[in-house]
Amino acid sequence: MSKEILKKFIEIRKQTEAVCKPLEIEDYSVQPIADVSPPKWHLAHSTWFFEQFVLSEFKDDYQVFSEDFAYLFNSYYNNAGERVLRPNRGLMTRPTVKEVYEYRTYVTDSIIALFKENATNEITTMVEIGINHEQQHQELLVYDIKYILGNQPTFPKYDGNFILSEEKQEKKYISIAEGIYEIGHKKESFCFDNELGVHKVYLQPFEISNKLITNKEYIEFINDGGYSNFNLWHAEGWSYIQDNNIKAPLYWHFTDGVWKYYNFNGLEVVNLNLPAMHISYYEAFAFAEWKGMRLPTEFEWEVASDHFKWGNLWEWTASAYQPYPNFTKADGALGEYNGKFMVNLQVLRGASIATPQDHSRNTYRNFFHTSLQWMFSGLRLVKK
Q1: Which domains does the chain possess?
Q2: How far apart are CA 186 and CA 237, in angstroms?
Q3: Among 117, 132, 271, 305, which residue is least crowded by beta carbons within 10 Å?
Q4: 217-245, pLDDT tens digit by residue?
Q5: Which strands sit side by side in the sheet containing 206-209, from one edge to the other?
Q6: How far apart are CA 382 and CA 210, in angstroms?
Q7: Whether the Cβ atoms of residue 253 and residue 267 lie closer than 8 Å to each other
């Protein structure tokens, strides 16, 4: 087990840097909005995680790379000490990108050495958590890079392999029978604590689409006045789109009589056959209302997931992010990983084109605020 984890650790560390390889040095420290962290910060934070929770805990006489880095690159772990506030991450031109990469090498080499010296079950478990944590940041890196580049006047290209694919199966609705179903992660493989404990839910019969909503369908919603009909929206969602002048998914621009979007290859005409992405929960709900349908609950989604293809986009559900029965938080800083966010957030299920390989499963519970569009998010519908 320890050899497999070490091999995966090395691969994951390389993959994070591969995501950043197409960037220019000027791209690394930019933070256009509070939700978008600079790529340099992601590189350092995912490294600090291993230093804080593995090396400093388990390696005798370990010397931290820099006494300042815990303060600079802690994210939200109050138990781990003070930190730079999230909106201020883009103010840090120092340490340099070169120093951050040196930090990554230092910590990576130290983890490898620790495994060779003393690969206990406890160390292996913590490194596996760190691997999955870094994979989450690989996906966030893609989101943030797209936001950084997609909000520049020239819409620069990014040489990465994050391309949506058309869902070519004929659209149909899958019938799921009424019944009692078991929810949650039941395998021996890794999962996050918010996927536990396993419990049963009762579901009414429902019919769920085997395909995500396409850009063609979403443009029909726009053309039919979807963004100007308050009857379709939650009151909070209606106020939000009015206050922020939102009239389309993120990165969409109506130019020369046609909808275009930024899609890593520059500004392109919207491909009508691809799934609609960069949709907030507010928009997903309003679209469902317009169609006379609804979003699935996360439990309906999990039960139905074996019947359709997924992996293109994270999918909004109608479920608030709440703990499962018998959920317990870990002690200390790791207890802050998921449990502290179980309020005022909505669950998304599935995976996206930016989700690393071997990081997705049908019990995975992603969660974001209802107003956010910058994730790789879409929707599928359930008949009322």
Answers
A1: 2-150 (1.20.120), 173-383 (3.90.1580.10)
A2: 36
A3: 117
A4: 999 999 999 999 999 999 999 999 999 99
A5: 173-176, 206-209, 382-383, 293-294
A6: 10
A7: yes
| Lookup: tokens for 223 | 């053309």
CB-count burial class (<10 Å; 0-12, 13-18, 19+) for 147:
buried
Alpha-carbon distance 346 to 262, whole Å? Answer: 26
For the chain, the C-alpha Rg in angstroms (whole number) is 21
SS3 sequence of 113-132: HHHHHHCCHHHHHHHHHHHH
The rounded distance, in Å, linking the Cα atoms of 77 and 221 is: 41
What is the CA 66 to chain-centroid distance, rounded?
29
Q: CA-CA distances (angstroms) from residue 206 to 101, 179, 263, 301?
A: 50, 11, 34, 11
* φ/ψ (deg, to 5) at 318: -85, 10
Cα–Cα distance for residue pair 142/69, rounded to 1 Å? 23
Which single residue is written with the structure tokens 């230092």? 106
